[in-house]
Queue: 2 jobs
Job 1
Amino acid sequence: MKQKTLFILSAVILLLVFAGATLFYTSNKQEQTTEAVALNQANLLRMHSPTLGAAEAKVLIVEFFDPACETCRDFYPFVKQLMAAHPDHVRLAMRYTPFHEGSDHAVKVLEAARRQGKYWETLEALYAAQETWVIHHRVEPERMWDALAGVGLDMERVRQDMNTPEIAALIAQDMADAETLKVTKTPEFFVNGRPMPSFGYEQLQTLVEEAIAKNYRN
Amino acid sequence: MATRTQPPPAPAGTEHDRAWTLVFLAWLIATASTLGALFFSEVMKLAPCELCWWQRIFMFPLVLVLPAGLFPFDPRVVRYAMPLALAGWGFAVFHWLLVMGVIPESIGPCVRGVPCSEVTFEWLGFINIPLLSVLAFSIIIVLLALTHIKVSK
């Protein structure tokens, strides 16, 4: 019947247009990110960023993250596993993109804790209790303190240090670099400057393993 | 009015075909709008604001409801689809007036995430997503109204 053919044909055409546009858009976007990173290598890593792992490691994971972001929290154990699997070959640098409302408070606390040598403990404590201090995607700064009780921080000093202009400048620099590198969602990973082709654990693992294979060939 | 248990007899011949085509066109608009909305949210990863969600709620079902009235052609599909189209049109107009600044944001019902008054796209200086939504719902309403007029003649 003619009407049925017309209907099915239209549905197929609409879906094909959608699939084509999707393909075009994603490959275009991927190209733009790779290009932005290639052009702006200097924006990828700053001296001020906290790092984990051997300083001479040839594989560098740069993670743009938001301590209030759930996916960042869920990714964290996986990143640690990846690091543990290749202890001398991989280094991790943490960069801040506090996209959630009020999330810069959490970053400031992290940086203040770093001055007391308790950066990773604080990050882990914040992640573990994330649902108590991130309410409806908004950071409730007062609720963060309970989450930090067990870390052993000098809280008075944290409260003083977190508002220093150096920390504010560091966050502003990271946000500016994120914009240059077209980081719009968290977490975003770059492995030796290469972004993930699509989002997922396996994609990150593949990137890391490829970089190790390339840099430690002997 | 026809009896409640039996659907009204479908008009015969070319009138029938014309009415079918009108509903079909309405379906085309609804499906194109739905895919467009999905492209913005799922491919471009733009979070829909609250008012966008309300419009989606009334646009998406049309994609499935309208074909149910096409095979075989059942003019009563107008009765089922029109309330959805009218409700969606209301939200679309409200949203459009909001981004145009006619209605102040403070009385807009946006509470979480993306503010509804934010204009994400603008083509030729005046075509934005809420305007496209108003146009889509308006065309669907007109097509359904014409269908109703055709079959009740």
Note: Chain B touches chain A at residues 17, 20, 24, 27-28, 31-32, 35, 38-39, 43-45, 67, 70-71, 112-113 (CB under 8 Å).
Job 2
Amino acid sequence: MEEIELVEIEGLSYTYPGRKEPALRDVSLSLTPGEFVLLVGASGSGKSTLCRALNGLVPHFYGGRIGGSVRVAGVDTATAEVRDLARTVGMVFQDPENQMVTDNPVSEIAFGLENIGLERLQMRKRVEEVMASLRLSQLRDKRISELSGGQKQKVALASVLAMHPSVLVLDEPTSQLDPISAEDFLSQVKSLNDELGLVVVLAEHRVERCFHFADRVVVLDGGRAVFAGSPEEMARWSRGHDWAPLPPVTRLFLAGSENGVPLTVKQGRARVAALAAKSDIRRVDFPPALPGRPASRNISVAPARPDTPASRGSDPVCCIETRDLWHVYDDGTEALRGVDLSIAQGEFVAVIGENGSGKTTLVRHFNGLLRPSKGKVLVRGADIKDAEVASLAAGCGMLGQNPNNQLVADTVVSELAATLAAVGTPAAERERMIEETLELLQIAPFRDSDPQDLSCGERERVALASVLVHKPPVLVLDEPTRGIDQATKDRLAAYLREYNSLGNTVILVTHDLEFAAECCQRVLLMGSGRILADGDKHDVLTDSLFFTTQYNKCFRGVADGVVTRSEALSALEAMS
Amino acid sequence: MIPAFRKKKCMLQALHPATTLTLALSLVLVSLITDNPLFQVAVIAATAMLAASAGVFREWLSWWKICAVVGVMTLIINPLVSRYGSTVIWRGPSVPVLGHLIITAEAVAYGAGMALRLAAVIWVFALVTLAVDPDSVLGLMRGRGSSSALLSALTLRMVPTTMRDASELLDAQRSRGIALDKGSKWAVLKSRLPLVKRSMSTSLDRAIGLAEAMESRGYGSGRRSRYEERRFGLLDATAFAVAALIAAAGIAGVAAGVLSFKYYPVLSMRYGAPAVLLMLAPVVLALGMMVLSEVWKRSNWLRLRA
């Protein structure tokens, strides 16, 4: 029987007003009821625009030029109003903060129903139903401002679901969430797709959480749909397209795999186990044991120990130290509870842990943005309790979670010049330092552009440049990979490694464990305001059940200690 | 930070928002029409009891700082600008604008009376802020007013977000070494000007995002229905009666001169049983509401009939 198409996109092209380049070029796609479609592509590839075309926001809300057609349940979105399409297409946006209208979950969920003039009894039934199904009932008396990011995003989902749409469009809904909330959110979406038969269109950067959910993956590049097929087909297609986003475990087994590639950690583990059995290997100890550590391996693979100040044999100079550091916020939350920590010059440290574990609170003490409630913070041996943030900036540069907050000047060059002037760099040296930084971060072509006109990835680099330009010996980055695509992430990792190799200390607060493992030598695991584990990344990540990389989960029990892609490849090589 | 409304299981929150507002208005009205400082104290005590019955006494009390600032200013300014009163307690030099400084005991007392009146009004406002859901108050507006109500609700909701955005922006700039609080006022202003532009741009982005989200959820597609429909009940009738009695006590006291308190030229006040009775009226009525609130919490019968 031929399947009925719920959404038909034919030759869709779209150009935003005032832009020369189209955001979408000749996209054709059809979606059948119950389908789960994953939209992937680099930043600016057209994912968000395509999402907005499905409910008519493009072109009705934005204007611009449109060609081709989008038909949803037989209705042409070019002729129907967005508000009329709201009953058929529900949309959840990236930032939960920007889609809440009221300050209470119940009235928020009811908002859309009131808009379509539903009767009170019907509304009550729908509100209670979605609250129960998304486990939001315990939040009914809370204020929206009291909810976590994950809870807010669930309320946004509930407010859309209550309108009983046939198509659910989600535009990077987890980009502002921590991994646990993101996983929880996407699992809910998957169960809605399974149980209610909703068409789900999900645009995502972090594909490892949802790749295996998809019935179809659509890859966008420069506004074109360059691929559409099953996840397995997409994995095979990506062999010739290195930039295509894939879960780490899928990418690992891509080379040389003639049969299907694993899409999940479970499948990856099975593949590793099969390889180990085939080559009669019981255990690969990786990386080789440290002196004093028992060696229990059958096969050893190439050493991958990082070059740390300690391993260089030099006496490490302590650049940041905390002693019995406590921080209590005004509402009584004990965010830090007696943290003792010492970071040496030249170290590359990742601070990981769940939301609310105290990661950001800890690093905000390093440049005086927060002051200890009790205890001390020493920077190069000096207590910074009376030092101003601005005066500490020369020694400790910090890039916050939102790069846009860094960018206030009219051009990229003046953005960098402002930092140099603020930290008192002699005027004669400024030009040279700006040029060096523009080259290092490959943003020289945008030197005279307004930072606000740049793409997301470019803005991220300019924000980083505005901190790096005066070469602070300590660089702190808070969630630098949130919401950025793989290519930008790879570039960022390269810059940070290079900066660290020059003897600078880099401290990274992140939920992205793969990124942390690729870049860092040392990992601090935080929980409930305390340091739960601190040491070499192999020790900390291998010892964790959940706070570890997909590679480590795949090789656990066969090649313990594998945490990075290169180590995983070496382990595979050793087994083959 | 000023504490905000939180949903609680209490009688005051179970009332129709119009009822709670009427109760608050009656307290403000009697505070404004009477000069008697003892009556102002009675209004403050009544407000405190209502706050306690709503389970927000601690948060309500935390507004004392605002009351203190406003009160101290009134207490200082009035004696300086007022030339009335016959009991001179200090003669000062001649200063520009104000002329010869003469401080009288009556002017100080008048300043104290005004400070009490302002404190009473501020604390009533605090009670409304803490115990009445702003969404439900805005929901009282219908028809053309509903758009304004929605706009007000959105503005209220975005205040914490905008403040957080601004704070993050300032932190980001300080982290780059930009000293935002150093130098002359002009230098401080100049260093912050680019941030205003950035802040506006962030707010605009948020506004566009919100408009998109609202349109995607059918806003503007026709006549809206209402999810919450609060009806007036037995408790509302009781609370209206309490509000009416408080207002009547104040109005009657002023009209009959029973609550009369004269500051100038010398302090004078009428004593007597009627004055005491009228002054106690707000306290006794609020006490009654407090008791009723406790009964309401324990009695399913009352809750179901309210």
Note: Residues 289-306 of chain A have pLDDT under 50 and may be disordered.
